[in-house]
Specification:
Helix content: 40-55%
Radius of gyration: 22 Å
Largest sheet: 8 strands, parallel, barrel
Low-confidence stretches: none
CATH architecture of the largest domain: Alpha-Beta Barrel
Number of domains: 2
Oligomer: single chain
Shape: globular
Number of strands: 10
Order of helices and strands: EHEHHEEHEEHEHEHEHEHHHHHHHHH
Mean pLDDT: 96
Structural class: alpha/beta
CATH topology of the largest domain: TIM Barrel
CATH class of the largest domain: Alpha Beta
């Protein structure tokens, strides 16, 4: 099973927007761009909403059938580990193996010594095509990297082999994720992580490193854009070099998690893809859920009332709902409107405050981030929320399609912006 050059993870909290999401990818195809859709949903999201991996598979298959999509598509078991992977095994064909929790946990001394010995040929000056600087590699440096990452990579191997034993070799896509680590990986650390993954015979087709800066949910990149550009270029060069050095898949590429709405770095990503003629996987997190709320607000009446209620309840349970996402949100409570203020808003004010349009004076990134983590409230509304999605399907679908195509696919892969 081969992941195409370009792919996009399309999260869908409530599993109702599969067709609208796929229509955005079909619009890109009409412009000659081949992008594989990957429906992704984590164990945490399933638990909060009360869905199961089977529901995600059903949504993807149904959307593909109704839209007449004949190209590749996948269902991602997002951020899995050995404790929860079995829930996804029979419904997924893409597995994001998350090893961040094991970074810093030391492997056995003999394993570290063997890794250092196996990579001793890299000691000295290392040059990587596409990177101007020369790296000085020492035995101590390789040992330090192994001490930090080898145990985590071994866990990736354990999880991969568990999946392979059940699904069979080459019947699924493997991604390895370190993006939730505390610190970014250097280019050399990434190189030796890939060496270790090759040593574990993990045929990963994407890898999600930790980048500099904040990749907060649903809002733009926060950080040093020039530093990100350098990291992204260097990591791309490292992958190309590692593929030639180790038994890794030729189509191995970078994956960017929480890649939704990172408008300021999209031009650099696009230029790097063209410079190196390489692919990328972008995960767009929960922006579809936010487009549902935007569509409900714009529908007015009962739709707007539900959107306001979701905000009111989310505001009242701020600490509870924000805690699981503390590392990927930055909300200033002082910039949040009160529920009483929001109660007086009309349709357009609510939509303008929520929609990620930085040129709009009403746009409020704190408001947007809080609602991003408020999907638990919508889930607790049960049939009332689901019925509203069905009733206002047309306007919601337009927002979902436009968001993915104009704000994500077009600036990343085609050029230009919404």
């Amino acid at each position: 099973m081969i992941l195409p050059k370009y792919s996009i993870g399309i999260g869908d909290r409530f599993g109702r927007q599969g067709q609208a999401q796929l229509q955005a990818i079909m619009k890109a195809k009409d412009q000659g761009l081949e992008i594989a859709p990957v429906w992704n949903k984590s164990c945490r999201e399933h638990t909060i909403i009360g869905t199961s991996p089977a529901d995600t598979r059903e949504e993807a298959d149904a959307a593909v059938k109704v839209c007449g999509w004949s190209d590749a598509y996948f269902v991602d078991a997002d951020h899995i580990n050995l404790a929860n992977v079995d829930d996804f095994i029979h419904h997924s064909d893409f597995f994001t193996i998350d090893i961040a929790d094991y970074i810093g946990e030391k492997a056995a001394p003999d394993d570290i010594a063997a890794f250092v010995k196996n990579n001793a040929k890299y000691v000295g000056a290392m040059t990587i095509p596409g990177i101007e600087r020369t790296f000085e590699i020492t035995t101590d440096l390789i040992e330090q990297i192994a001490s930090k990452y080898l145990r985590a990579v071994q866990e990736a191997g354990n999880i991969y082999r568990h999946i392979e034993n059940i699904k069979g070799k080459d019947n699924f896509i493997t991604e390895v994720s370190t993006d939730e680590a505390e610190l970014p990986q250097t280019p050399i650390e990434l190189f030796f992580i890939l060496a270790a993954l090759a040593g574990e015979s993990v045929p990963l087709q994407t890898i999600a490193p930790k980048f500099t800066g904040r990749f907060n949910k649903g809002v733009d990149y926060v950080g040093d854009i020039d530093r990100f550009r350098n990291e992204f270029e260097q990591d791309t060069a490292v992958i190309a070099y590692a593929v030639n050095e180790f038994p890794l898949p030729d189509n191995l590429k970078l994956s960017i998690h929480s890649g939704s709405d990172k408008f300021s770095i999209y031009p650099f990503i696009r230029r790097t893809l063209r410079k190196f003629d390489t692919g990328v996987h972008i995960k767009t997190a929960g922006t579809t859920w936010l487009e549902e709320l935007t569509g409900l607000a714009l529908a007015g009446g009962d739709g707007l009332a539900i959107a306001k209620e979701v905000y009111r309840r989310t505001f009242g349970r701020f600490d509870e709902l924000c805690k699981p996402y503390a590392t990927v949100i930055d909300i200033d409570k002082n910039r949040l409107p009160t529920p009483a203020e929001v109660a007086g808003w009309d349709e357009q004010t609510f939509a303008d405050s929520l929609r990620h349009n930085q040129s709009c004076p009403n746009y409020n990134p704190d408001f947007r981030q809080l609602l991003h983590v408020g999907y638990k409230i919508a889930a607790q509304l049960g049939d009332r929320y689901q019925d509203a999605l069905k009733k206002h399907e047309e306007i919601i679908g337009r927002n979902v399609t436009e968001n993915i195509f104009s704000r994500h696919l077009q600036p990343i892969f085609i050029g230009g912006s919404s």
